[in-house]
Structures are given as structure tokens and as C-alpha cells.
Amino acid sequence: MTPDSEQAAVIEAAPEERLVIVAGPGAGKTAVIVERVRALIEDGGLDRPGDILVVSFSRAAVGVVADRLAGRGRGQRRGGVRDQRVELGERGLGRLDDAFVPLLRPARAPR
């Protein structure tokens, strides 16, 4: 992937920046998100990939991101962390409802 200037700005943003990626079909969102995660780990010095949360609206998009982070998708680079599986932790990658519905459910009283 050769990112354009907007994509490069997202990929290279400081680790403390929280980003929301909104773009139309075919704009390269998935590739940018994958490269951002890798940049956070490789260049940003993030020691705990489990602190990253990636959410999407569809199971298909989540599957593509997971495959690319695991090195099974297209456009994988060779060398360094880009050749390694990236684990985001138990809840680090999922659909919006997977990530937030458990937080919104009221706690149940013990029986």
C-alpha cells in the first residue's frame, strides 16, 4: 500500500491520538487501519497491543482486518513486525455491538 497524504497522516498520527476513520467504499480504510495498528506497535513503542480497540460495523470488515493483522491477507509487508501476527487482546477487534453492548447491559442482581 502506498498511502496518500490523508492516509499517511492517520497511519503516522501520534500514539496518544484517538482516531475515527470515516470514508466511502474502496477508499482504503481497512489498509489504513491495519497499517495504523502496526505503526502503533512498531514505531509508536506500544508495548501492550491489547490496549488497542478496533471496531467496525460488519463482521466481514472485522474478518478482513483480523486476517491482515495475522498476515493472511493481501498487501502484507515483509520484515519486522509486519511479518508477525498482531494480537489485539480478547476484545480488541470486533463489531460496534460486540464492543459496547456488554457495557450498556445493566448488571444483574445475584440470585
Can you walk through the features of this model?
With 111 residues, the protein is mainly α. The chain has a single domain, classed as Rossmann fold. It has four helices and two strands. Strands 1-2 form a two-stranded parallel sheet. Helix 3 links the parallel strand 1 (54-56) and strand 2 (93-95). Helix 1 (5-11) runs parallel beside helix 2 (29-42) and helix 2 packs across helix 3.
Give a brief outline of the structure.
The protein is mainly α. It has helices at residues 5-11, 29-42, 59-69, 96-104, and strands at 54-56, 93-95.
List keywords for this structure.
2 strands; globular; 111 residues; Rossmann fold; mainly alpha; 4 helices
- When the domains are counted, the total is 1
The separation of the N and C termini measures: 54 Å
For the secondary structure, the number of strands is 2
Numbering strands along the chain, what is their spatial order in the largest sheet?
Answer: 1-2
Structural shape: globular
SS element count, helices: 4
> At CATH's second level, what is the architecture?
3-Layer(aba) Sandwich
Chain-averaged pLDDT: 75
Name the CATH superfamily assignment. P-loop containing nucleotide triphosphate hydrolases
User: What series of H and E elements makes up the topology?
Assistant: HHEHEH
Helix content: 25-40%
